[in-house]
Amino acid sequence: MSPPLSYLEFHLVFIVPPILLLGALAWWRDDAWLDRRSLSGLGILIGLAVVYTTPWTNVMIPEGVWWYGEGAVVERIWYTPVEEYLFFVLQPVVTALWLFQFLDVADRSLQIPLSHRVVGVLAGLAICLVGWLLLGTTSTYYLGSILFWAGPILAIQWGFGLTYLRDTWPIVTLGIAVPTLYLWVADGIAIGLGIWEISTTHTVGVSVLGLPLEEALFFLVTNVFIVQGIVMYVWVLERKHELVELASFNDRPAAYETD
């Protein structure tokens, strides 16, 4: 039996309207952060999302971790529906446009303590290790795959800017929380309608607000990627004079160096 909404219609009902609303608000509000810097950061993140997520979904789908309702998708590229690739683009847009409503840059140098960078990298790698261990059990396979897939990105982001993310935690937290909650609701509706289904064999059977734990975690970590990425990107651009000064210092002729 075909679901009442196709995957494409799901986008039109649940994803496109927030984009239009938030885009209009960002355009009209003078204090919204909608400029070349933020939009270029969004563009980079969309490209990375497509490249990094495509291999992962094309392993998960043939493994039977999730599947789609009869007639719910138009076409597939590899094992993944074109609507899923479209979601790789649309989710960052939704989350970024929400973040742009209150995005700001804190006055902190790019030179953060090395110990903070080490802690950030180790924390991300620890998540990756936990994921790898969970991959060995059928019921934890989906959970493990998310953690294993997310860990390297978190290690990079936390290793680069853990201190800055700590200092801007209200912006980061609000930027992550609202779109994550919205996508949890939308995902729960999609599952209820049969647009896609999640395997009970590959999941631990724990739910968050009626949503499988693994699905809730996926939307959480992907929004963490997006928000942290944009927050740090605009921070770097705001402090780019430090990079110029550092490059100038490194290029200084030896004759000008002091003993």
From TrEMBL:
<keyword id="KW-0125">Carotenoid biosynthesis</keyword>
<keyword id="KW-1133">Transmembrane helix</keyword>
<comment type="pathway">
    <text>Carotenoid biosynthesis.</text>
</comment>
<feature type="domain" description="Lycopene cyclase">
    <location>
        <begin position="141"/>
        <end position="223"/>
    </location>
</feature>
<dbReference type="GO" id="GO:0016740">
    <property type="term" value="F:transferase activity"/>
</dbReference>
<feature type="transmembrane region" description="Helical">
    <location>
        <begin position="39"/>
        <end position="57"/>
    </location>
</feature>
<feature type="transmembrane region" description="Helical">
    <location>
        <begin position="216"/>
        <end position="236"/>
    </location>
</feature>
<dbReference type="GO" id="GO:0016020">
    <property type="term" value="C:membrane"/>
</dbReference>
<feature type="transmembrane region" description="Helical">
    <location>
        <begin position="6"/>
        <end position="27"/>
    </location>
</feature>
<feature type="transmembrane region" description="Helical">
    <location>
        <begin position="141"/>
        <end position="165"/>
    </location>
</feature>
<protein>
    <submittedName>
        <fullName>Geranylgeranyl-diphosphate geranylgeranyl-transferase</fullName>
    </submittedName>
</protein>
<dbReference type="GO" id="GO:0016872">
    <property type="term" value="F:intramolecular lyase activity"/>
</dbReference>
<keyword id="KW-0808">Transferase</keyword>
<feature type="domain" description="Lycopene cyclase">
    <location>
        <begin position="19"/>
        <end position="94"/>
    </location>
</feature>
<dbReference type="GO" id="GO:0016117">
    <property type="term" value="P:carotenoid biosynthetic process"/>
</dbReference>
<keyword id="KW-0472">Membrane</keyword>
<dbReference type="GO" id="GO:0045436">
    <property type="term" value="F:lycopene beta cyclase activity"/>
</dbReference>
<dbReference type="InterPro" id="IPR017825">
    <property type="entry name" value="Lycopene_cyclase_dom"/>
</dbReference>
<feature type="transmembrane region" description="Helical">
    <location>
        <begin position="172"/>
        <end position="196"/>
    </location>
</feature>
<keyword id="KW-0812">Transmembrane</keyword>
<keyword id="KW-0413">Isomerase</keyword>
<feature type="transmembrane region" description="Helical">
    <location>
        <begin position="85"/>
        <end position="106"/>
    </location>
</feature>
<feature type="transmembrane region" description="Helical">
    <location>
        <begin position="118"/>
        <end position="135"/>
    </location>
</feature>
<dbReference type="Pfam" id="PF18916">
    <property type="entry name" value="Lycopene_cyc"/>
</dbReference>
